[in-house]
Amino acid sequence: MLGAIDRIGLDKNKITVVSGIGCSSRATGYVDFNTLHTTHGRAIAFATGVKFANPELTVLVVTGDGDATAIGGNHFIHAARRNIDITVILYNNWIYGMTGGQVSPTTPHGMRATTAPFGNPEGSFDISRLAIAAGASFVARGSVTSPVKLSQYIEKGIRKKGFALIEAFTPCPTAFGRQNKMGKAIDNLEWIEERTVDVKKAAALSPEELEDKLVTGILVDVEKAEYTELYDKLVENVRDKPVDLHVPEREVVLASIAVAGGEEL
Predict the structure, then answer these.
(1) Quick one: average pLDDT of 132-152?
(2) Fewer beta carbons within 10 Å, N or C terminal of the chain?
């Protein structure tokens, strides 16, 4: 993220980074920007307010799979639907790492967590597909095993006018790895690397070959109207128009109903 900001040449005083709660959300404590470390699941809601109050700011959200898509799920969906110009960098490590290793919405079916010692019986979210379906204008997915590509995706997301999601696969050897007996930290990285496949290569594979694979790359990059700009146009269009706030008397309303053939209330 820092490399992307540096390449773009953004003024640090015009950047706001917002985080929620979780391992990922510690990031706001280590950067010299305007930062907000908010409550669990509310990072995107706070970021929406910041962007709406001052559309000139570059607003970034650093969040995790549990923070953004469990308790914060509705904020995630509706920020994408509105296509508000914020960039969400979402660490997906498939578990609630900071609070003890509970099942998160992305924990794969059958894999273990402290709250699923015999294997997760639930299906899991595909976060990027969720953002695409909700209306995001830019969605990319990468892995910490390919950091250069991941940084490039973040740069493209920041440059995009509209809601941008960069989903970043990252290991949690302490919780996810230990619960699933995945070995050392390097083994966790190799597990991620073995499961990822670039979107161009994925196009040539069958559904059976793609089963349990994680497709990476730029998944969506489209031009759409941005929310704060649409709202400004709406305000401009209605600014000088008279608004009739007169409330008709009850007798006038009843007379109108009678003329229309309706029954008296």
Answers:
(1) 97
(2) C
Structure tokens of 41?
A: 């699941």
CB-based contacts of 5, cutoff 8 Å, min separation 6: 12, 15, 158
Position 247 confidence tier, pLDDT thresholds 50, 70, 90: low
Residue 72, Cα to own-chain centre: how many angstroms?
9
Q: How far apart are the first and last CA of the chain?
A: 62
How is residue 24 written in tokens?
């990922």
DSSP one-letter code for 29: G
Residue carrying structure tokens 């146009």: 233
Q: pTM for the complete prediction? A: 0.89
Query: pLDDT digit string (tens) for 194-242?
Result: 999 999 999 999 999 998 899 999 999 999 999 999 999 999 998 878 7
Q: Has residue 250 got a pLDDT over 90?
A: no
Taking the C-alpha atoms of residue 168 and residue 92, their distance in angstroms, rounded to an integer, is 6
Question: How much is the CA Rg of the chain, to the nearest whole Å?
Answer: 23
Please report how the helices 73-82 and 127-134 are oriented relative to each other, as an axis angle in degrees rounded to 10. 40
Handedness of CA 88, 94, 96, 97 (dihedral sign): negative
Cα 43 to Cα 29: distance, rounded to the nearest angstrom: 14
